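Q: Trace token order:
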Amino acid sequence: MKTSDGWTDGVIGIATAHVPTAEQAAKTALDWSDLFVDIGASGRADAAAQGIEIGSPIVFASQARRMGNTVSGKALDARAGLAIMTSFLRRLDRAKLKYDVTLAAAVMEEMRWVGAGSLGKDPCDRAIGVEVGLAGDIQTVDPQQMPTRLGAGPVIVIKDRVLHMDEI
């Protein structure tokens, strides 16, 4: 995003489809008012202090990059899960295992679990799903609907629209 002092990184975003307002759910198509650019500012005054104002030009760039204390990039939801599984494997003491451990990765979970659905065909005694969560601290999302914040730590989910856990 072009500022009065040069360029700053941002991420084009939209409120997640997981927690739409009634007005958003009733829409059949997105329009420009549904989009926002997240520059990591805590509010309008912080954005203005960074030289951002309404009408500041933006340029699309898809490379992974740091933005303050966060990282932005393509497909980070899948890549974060792979990084967690890799770290787990590096720390795992296989000599102490009493059970078989299988790790699997899937894609397209946003499309009614197309990829992850195939993982359920082999029975197992226990499973742990690793996935990124949704940040609720963006405009148009009610904190009551999504009480999570970026940078506020991990979240354990025991129920969503598709999956209901019977134990944790």
Q: What stands out?
A: The chain has a mean pLDDT of 79. The chain is about 20% helix and 10% strand. The two ends are 43 Å apart (CA to CA).
